[in-house]
Fold this protein.
Amino acid sequence: MARILVTGASGLLGINFAQEIMTSHEIVALDRGKLVNAPFRVLKSDLLTPGAVDSALDSAQPDWVVNCAALADIDTCEDYPDLARRLNTELPAQFAKACKSRGIPLVHISTDAVFDGRAVAFYTEEADPNPLSVYARTKLEGEQAVLAENPDAIVARVNFYGWSLSGRRSLAEFFFNNLSGRKSMTGFTDVRFCPMLVNDTARMLVRMLEKGLRGLYHVVGPQAMSKYHFGVEIARKFGFKENEIAPKSINTSSLIAKRSNNLCLSINKLCTDLDEIPPDFSTGLDKLYAQFRQGYPQKIRSYQQVEGETGIQANR
Ligand SMILES: NC(=O)c1ccc[n+]([C@@H]2O[C@H](COP(=O)([O-])OP(=O)(O)OC[C@H]3O[C@@H](n4cnc5c(N)ncnc54)[C@H](OP(=O)(O)O)[C@@H]3O)[C@@H](O)[C@H]2O)c1
């Protein structure tokens, strides 16, 4: 059993990583103060405070680090490019350097958004990125900084869906919330991606650490689909009417940041090096539905401070 320091533990990936992996490894979750009732140890820290990276490593004494902290909202990055640079580029570089000097294996999380989407095929790790937004540029620069500081680190380009603390963070929740509230919504027919259930992403990342992999990897689902089709699959699985989702082109959307319309990544390198194929889309979707039936969304949300609550409970 390894002790894993997980940053960004209140985020969509971080909270599900901690929840999924805590049965097989010891989790130390780093959070800015949202988590109060978590069933794993929580370190409270703002990682932009000088010295925070070293303090976290000194305090947690981890065997592995998984850096999920980021400014991950694409449009917010356009409004706050300096904050995006600090969180998505400089902070990962600090973790890479600190982990290198302490001999701690690091996974840094990046994104499929580093590509401009012009390719017709799936992007491999060798394909040239061409970021279209502040988010994508700062994430790409983060990848480069991590691997320059620490070539032994794993940089994982991901795309995932699942249940979040806020209930509003993932694309699956977007469709679920609108469908269950009978609100009209659109789905992009011309943006294709390879979604993976976030719990499966967590397990793949741990398998990569256990196998001692290093370098750049694409860690996404094995099937490509449009965002519209993804919404239709959510509707079918949860028993909602799929015709509540109106097909739409991203070219007619009012989103702030420029987005790529081909986010399809090849996972051949991952499958070869792990000797394993990640679960297919329908298996992930079945699990998302089973989680819903078993009260998983409510369970992870119970780990956070309720709005208006003032007392901070001791973290275990
Ligand atoms: N969501 C996706 O589908 C997707 C797709 C591709 C790549 N990714 C990548 O996956 C990673 C995780 O994404 P996510 O969706 O889980 O993001 P998220 O839900 O927005 O979580 C980001 C996390 O970073 C934390 N954080 C931000 N500033 C911090 C600071 N100064 N100190 C400490 N923690 C701080 C946040 O804490 P607070 O809650 O306190 O703000 C939050 O826990 C990111 O690297 C992202 O680029 C995500």
